[in-house]
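By way of example, what follows is a protein record of this kind.
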Amino acid sequence: YGKPTEQVGYTDGHYCLTKQDREEASRCGSSLLYGEILATGVSKLLDQDHLHADRAQVLYDLGMGVGKLCLQSFLQFPSLKLVFGIELAYSRYKLAEEALVRLVSMQPDAFEIEERVPGEFIRVHTVGPRKSRRRVIELRRGNMWTVRGINAVDIVVLHTELTQTSINKVKRLVSEMKRGARFVTYQDLSSKKWYGGCEPPFTQIPANVSELDQFATSWSAIKGHHLYCWTK
């Protein structure tokens, strides 16, 4: 990213927003509320007591911001064969794309750009003698509600503010997840706001039930913030 990756308070993901980003978010009924899970928080989130990335092959980050969680999970967990991130705000996506390009330029023996349309998407794979063992990270600029293939995903990151207008979209997304999929949300999806009096089709991961289970974030680096971890 060309600077320390752990930023607290207002970050590049706040300052980069443009008028066009805000107008598009308004048209889509999306929120641009922003905050980052810091590196130590991501490590905890993906550990064996939470989303257990060591036993996952596919991770999707829907509303990836500037892509830090995507890059960290791809580099930290070799079990992940595909890491996919999508972001609505063009300015945030560009920061993520530039960071991935910079990673490839710094480690050309380890990573290679497979396909890229600047400002739209980039797909990078690991370098190795056997194509069947290649791992892939793909970043896209777009609306997360248009993503397909959720039924093949092991981990879904929904660390974004889900608006009132997105309730049915959230329910559809969860219904498409496979049994055993793990996911994290910024908001408590077990509240009546989301499923009314009906039992939601997922349960909270045991280690995450207590509000004291907190993760280091850009807005609460020391105390941490409670995120909600679920399994379907």
About this structure: The helical segments are 12-15, 19-28, 39-45, 68-76, 90-106, 167-176, 192-195. The chain has a mean pLDDT of 93. The two ends are 34 Å apart (CA to CA). The first strand starts at residue 58 and ends at 62.
